[in-house]
Design goal:
The chain has two helices and 25 strands. It is mainly beta. It starts with 9 loop residues before the first helix and ends with a strand.
C-alpha cells in the first residue's frame, strides 16, 4: 500500500496502542469536572487521548505539502497523500477537414433537336481537351446543348480530434506522527499528545486504509477526508473518424463552335452543371470539352464521447477533531 513504510507512528513505535482524543472526557476551559482534570494532567499544550477503534491508527497532525514538513512535536512522516478536490469533465470533439483525393469522370455532352433540351438526341462522354466534330445524327440548324459535369467520387477527409483535459484540482498533505508519549497523569490506557500548532492544522486525526465512515462517539466529524496515493487518469476520447465525402461536385465549362474544327470564336459556352444552352438559329458544328474540376464536398464526423475513468489509488480515510 503506497502510504505505508515511511516512518512508524509515534505511539505505535513505542509499543503502545495508538490513541485519539476522547472529546467527551475533557473540556476547553481547563477547569471543573473530569475534563478540567484531564487538561491539567497534560498541561496547557497537550491533551489526554484514549485508544481509537479497532482498525484505526493515530494520532497524526496534518500539514500542507510545500508549507512545511514534519517537525516539532510531530517529526515523523506517516504518509503523504492527495485530496482530490475537483475532477472536471474531459471535453471531446471531432471535426473533418476538406476532402482530398476526389476526382471527376468525363463530362457528358448532350445535344438536342429542340431549343429547350428535350428530348435527348445524343449523349456522349467526350475526351476532354479535344475537338469533337462528328455527331450522329448531325446537329440540327438550331437545337440546344448542355453538359453534365457529374459528381466528385473517392477521396477522404482527415479527422481532427480535439481533447481538452482540464487540470485536476488537488491538495497534498503530510500526516505527521509524534516521537514519544510524554509523561502524564491521564487515566490508564491514555496518553498525553501535544496539540498541533504552527504550520500544522490545529486538530488531531486518526486514519485507516479504505473509504470508511468516521468512528462515532469519539468527537470526530461524521465524514472524513479521503486521501489518495495519487491517481491515474485513464480517461480518453472515443475515436474521431470521418465518413466518406459527399455532396462534392464537378464544375467547369465547355464551348461549341460554328466551324467544324473548333476554330474561331466559340458560339456558346456551356457550364458543367446541366444548364440548357439554346443555339437557334444556326446550330453548331464542333465542340471542345474541358475537364471538370472538383468542388469538394464534406465529411460527417463521428460522435465522440469520453471513455474510461479516473482511477484513484490507495484510499486512506482521515478523521479529525474540530479545531483544538
Amino acid at each position: 500500500m503506497g502510504f505505508r513504510g515511511v516512518v512508524g507512528l509515534g505511539l505505535l513505535g513505542l509499543g503502545m496502542n495508538a490513541c485519539v482524543l476522547d472529546l467527551d472526557r475533557f473540556g476547553s476551559s481547563g477547569g471543573g469536572g473530569e475534563g478540567g482534570a484531564d487538561l491539567e494532567a497534560c498541561g496547557d499544550t497537550a491533551v489526554c487521548i484514549a485508544p481509537p477503534p479497532l482498525g484505526w491508527s493515530g494520532p497524526v497532525a496534518l500539514v500542507e505539502v510545500g508549507m512545511a514538513g514534519c517537525g516539532g512535536d510531530f517529526p515523523n512522516e506517516v504518509f503523504r497523500g492527495d485530496v482530490i478536490l475537483d475532477v472536471p469533465d474531459l471535453s471531446c470533439s471531432c471535426s473533418c477537414g476538406a476532402p482530398t483525393g476526389q476526382s471527376c469522370g468525363k463530362p457528358t455532352f448532350h445535344n438536342y433537336l429542340s431549343d429547350d433540351c428535350s428530348p435527348v438526341n445524343n449523349g456522349s462522354d467526350l475526351t476532354a481537351g479535344q475537338c469533337h466534330g462528328s455527331f450522329s445524327p448531325s446537329p440540327p440548324a438550331g437545337g440546344s446543348v448542355r453538359v453534365d459535369g457529374g459528381v466528385a467520387t473517392g477521396g477522404a477527409c482527415a479527422a481532427m480530434p480535439v481533447e481538452v483535459r482540464p487540470e485536476i484540482l488537488t491538495e497534498r498533505r503530510l500526516a505527521c506522527g509524534i516521537e514519544a508519549s510524554p509523561s502524564n497523569s491521564c487515566l490508564e490506557g491514555e496518553a498525553c499528545v501535544p496539540v498541533p500548532s504552527g504550520t500544522f492544522e490545529p486538530r488531531l486525526c486518526i486514519w485507516a486504509e479504505g473509504e470508511l465512515p468516521c468512528p462515532t462517539g469519539a468527537g470526530f466529524a461524521p465524514a472524513g477526508t479521503v486521501f489518495r496515493n495519487g491517481y491515474q487518469d485513464d480517461r480518453e476520447c472515443s475515436a474521431c473518424t470521418c465518413g466518406a465525402p459527399s455532396d462534392g461536385t464537378c464544375e467547369g465549362s465547355s464551348s461549341v463552335y460554328a466551324a467544324g474544327s473548333c476554330s474561331g470564336s466559340a458560339k456558346a459556352t456551356m457550364p458543367h452543371d446541366g444548364t440548357c444552352v439554346p443555339l437557334s438559329p444556326t446550330g453548331f458544328a464542333s465542340v471542345r470539352i474541358q475537364a471538370s474540376t472538383v468542388v469538394p464536398g464534406s465529411c460527417i464526423p463521428a460522435d465522440v464521447i469520453p471513455e474510461g475513468e479516473l482511477v484513484r489509488r490507495d484510499p486512506v480515510t482521515v478523521c479529525c477533531t474540530p479545531s483544538l
